[in-house]
Amino acid sequence: MARAPATTRRRRTGSRSARRGLAAPASKAKRLKRIGIVDTSFSRYDMASAAIDELRKQGEGFAVERYTVPGIKDLAAGARILFDRGCDLVMALGMVGRQPVDKDCALAADFGLQAVQARVGKHILGVMVHEEEAKDEAELAGLFDRRTREHAVNAYDLLFRPAAIRARAGTGQREGFADAGPLQGTRP
Amino acid sequence: MARAPATTRRRRTGSRSARRGLAAPASKAKRLKRIGIVDTSFSRYDMASAAIDELRKQGEGFAVERYTVPGIKDLAAGARILFDRGCDLVMALGMVGRQPVDKDCALAADFGLQAVQARVGKHILGVMVHEEEAKDEAELAGLFDRRTREHAVNAYDLLFRPAAIRARAGTGQREGFADAGPLQGTRP
Amino acid sequence: MARAPATTRRRRTGSRSARRGLAAPASKAKRLKRIGIVDTSFSRYDMASAAIDELRKQGEGFAVERYTVPGIKDLAAGARILFDRGCDLVMALGMVGRQPVDKDCALAADFGLQAVQARVGKHILGVMVHEEEAKDEAELAGLFDRRTREHAVNAYDLLFRPAAIRARAGTGQREGFADAGPLQGTRP
Amino acid sequence: MARAPATTRRRRTGSRSARRGLAAPASKAKRLKRIGIVDTSFSRYDMASAAIDELRKQGEGFAVERYTVPGIKDLAAGARILFDRGCDLVMALGMVGRQPVDKDCALAADFGLQAVQARVGKHILGVMVHEEEAKDEAELAGLFDRRTREHAVNAYDLLFRPAAIRARAGTGQREGFADAGPLQGTRP
Amino acid sequence: MARAPATTRRRRTGSRSARRGLAAPASKAKRLKRIGIVDTSFSRYDMASAAIDELRKQGEGFAVERYTVPGIKDLAAGARILFDRGCDLVMALGMVGRQPVDKDCALAADFGLQAVQARVGKHILGVMVHEEEAKDEAELAGLFDRRTREHAVNAYDLLFRPAAIRARAGTGQREGFADAGPLQGTRP
To answer: How far from chain centre, in Å, is Cα A150?
Structure first.
């Protein structure tokens, strides 16, 4: 879910105050939500720290449960374990290599993530960065950071600000790159 | 499920009165049905609005539950959540990008949708538009609109007018394009 | 499960009396079996009518429950719904288009059919015709008809004549085309 | 799981007395085990007879439950039905054709077999022969026979002689062809 | 999950004393954990022995349950059986051949492993070596050994030293080869 769009738009992540208007006040929450973060030792970027940092910028009302597994094919079991520990939503963070075998691994990993979601009935937001998506390590690091943060906003919105993500429906969001935007002529 | 057919036929969507003959009167319904709509922020067209608008043109007897998720791989969990909220059928609306990785995403998404349906025993009508199906943005927008609306008719028929969709069995319907029609010589 | 075989053999479908020897008498059946038929509006041939007609030629002891869905990816949910209505076996009838995307659709559809069967523990006989299997519409219509009818015989045999299908084990049956037959020298 | 290895080794199948040393005496078995055999009418070789014949050569303590289905995509439901009838292990015997569509069928079939095993927690030993694995019909028949028999030994060992199959761990067994053997220098 | 990285780093496996600092003392464990090892007779290397040897080097507090199956498509059922016997985690050890059909087998095997994990909620660490990953048998044997051992460390860490694997999060670990390491400039 990431490719170069035609036009650059405003980034979704950012300061917490800028988003306060849409946020449900934490004081109204019945209980603290639990957000699970499962990441891998295979990844070449510390995605979990980026996700947790961004989540905390978005607001309050949640605790983070973090868990590290070896590779992307272990994410589904990790997510299931986090749900069993009481998480309401899990972010599954991983990196996909360049080789054909890695693409089959990614399909197997996705299969597992879908199977767990179908069973548990809660979201696992998969954040996958493919090693060949950027031209050098610095750009790749930037992509890891941005995509992870933008999905952290999605995670927060799914739990606390459904109106905010609904407002983005059909608008061509692209996590990690500039947004594609809505098709020309479809928005007034 | 959409490609250019040999001949153009009458479109299925349209005014509500034209279809009244086949509709089950809402007054006979035991309870209001619930139709879930899950769409994405990735899509470049507001498919949910088109679906809801068309559903309302078809008749009464239902309430809509709407939910937005980031991308197509999140549709299955979204649909499962809508079933857990009492929906009788879910329309899952999404856009598939041009790259090979997007096709794998679509397969993973479909896998999840099948897994949820197998578990819940209710329909998720997947409406997917591939970015490369049209030659420009205006045509693509038209395709998004038409395919979504024609599947909204399918959704309504599955719940309220099974005889109407049965009457279309084996007739080569193509949502979003002109219908292919039945094979030559197979219908009197 | 259909390609041109080396030699042409006697067709399996046909008059009911010719098969009576192997049929379990309907009078011995504990209760009427229910055979579900789920077909699609996407298909360009009325497969359900062919299936029902052939089933009735095979014998008695069953009732048919028919259900139409939009496309092949909706067959699994349709089959699950038919099992929930009490069916003992379901025939899932569909057509697969020419494009690469259609092949992915078929894989997703098959996945769903397998998932439902694994869960329910009853057969869904998938009857799929690929649009490119025949050179023109007339031949394609013939293929639709024959393959559907031969699988209707399979369905009837699985429920009522297990000895009949066992007698065909390892004999290279090809639904819709002439049979491939057993390997040379392996049958006396 | 079968291709031409570098070196030819002793075949695993054979006379019952030769294996008696490793077999658990049938008299110690708490109850008769049930081995299910599901095969297809699509296959061009009578795999079930070969499997049953070889199982009986291996020893006692089991009964065979046999069941025939149309094609490989029906094997998973067939296996599930055999488990529901009390089988402890199922051999699923099928043939895969030459065409790309057959490879997708095989993947769908395997998917179903995995789904049933995940659910039931018992082994389904899939024995698949691809039509293009041999250069002519006689050789293909030989491959069908040998692979099926060698997997029958595996089935018997999983139920009655776990020490025997453990002794083959990591030794490059190839059912149907000569074994590949362990990597050079890894066994004393 | 293994390809040649740019730089060589220190290997993870090694003497037990070197890791003692991070290990949870066995005396605090409520009960002995059970680690399942399922391997295959298809593999050309004795992966199970390497895994067990390395696990024992890592520390105490666990018992090993070992089980051998024919090939990688049998690993999922084997793992499920080991979970049913009380295992807390399973290592699934297998070899993937060179042919296209082997890659489909690997996908089917992975599918099964994911399905079991989704159902059971415990980890199956899949350790797969592809026959073409090394240039000769000696190098391949070395790869089998190293990858298996490094995943044995992962297994031990998941059960006993979660802080140790968390410390490797995002650091580009590559089991069987030198690690890729974190992206340049992302770690101080």
So the answer is: 6
Structure tokens at B71: 């991308």
List Cβ neighbours of A28 (8 Å cut-off, separation of 6 or more): none
Cβ(C26)–Cβ(C61) below 8 Å: yes
Over range A95-108, report the average pLDDT.
92
Cβ contact E111–D106 (<8 Å): no
CA A159 from centre of chain: 13
Nearest CA in chain E to D182: E44
Give this complex's ipTM: 0.88
The answer to pTM > 0.95 is: no
Instruction: Output the average pLDDT for chain A.
Output: 88
Identity of the residue in C39, C97, C108 whose CB atom sits nearest the CB atom of B111:
C108
| % pLDDT > 90, chain A | 77
Start-to-end C-alpha separation, chain A: 26
Q: Is D83 exposed, middle or buried (0-12, 13-18, 19+ CB in 10 A)?
A: buried
For strand B89-96 and strand B124-130, is the pairing parallel, antiparallel, or unpaired?
Answer: parallel
CB contact under 8 A, E114 and A119: no
Please give the pLDDT value at position E92. Answer: 98
Give the list of residues 6+ apart from residue B11 with CB closer than 8 angstroms, or none.
Answer: B146, B150
Chain C environment of B123 (Cβ under 8 Å): 69, 74, 77-78, 81
Question: How close is the nearest chain E Cα to the Cα of D109, in Å?
Answer: 9
Q: Tell whether the model's pLDDT for residue D6 goes beyond 50.
A: no
Residue contact B175–C70, C-beta within 8 A: yes
CB atoms within 10 A of CB E85: 11
Alpha-carbon gap, residue A89 to B144, rounded angstroms: 30
Nearest to B41 among A113, A126, A173 (CB): A173
Q: What are the C-alpha distances in Å from A162 to residues B36, B41, D78, D123, E162?
A: 15, 12, 45, 45, 34
What is the pLDDT averaged over residues B30-46? Answer: 95
Q: Chain C closest CA to B119's CA: distance in Å?
A: 8
List chain E residues with CB under 8 Å of A41. Answer: 154, 165, 168-171, 173
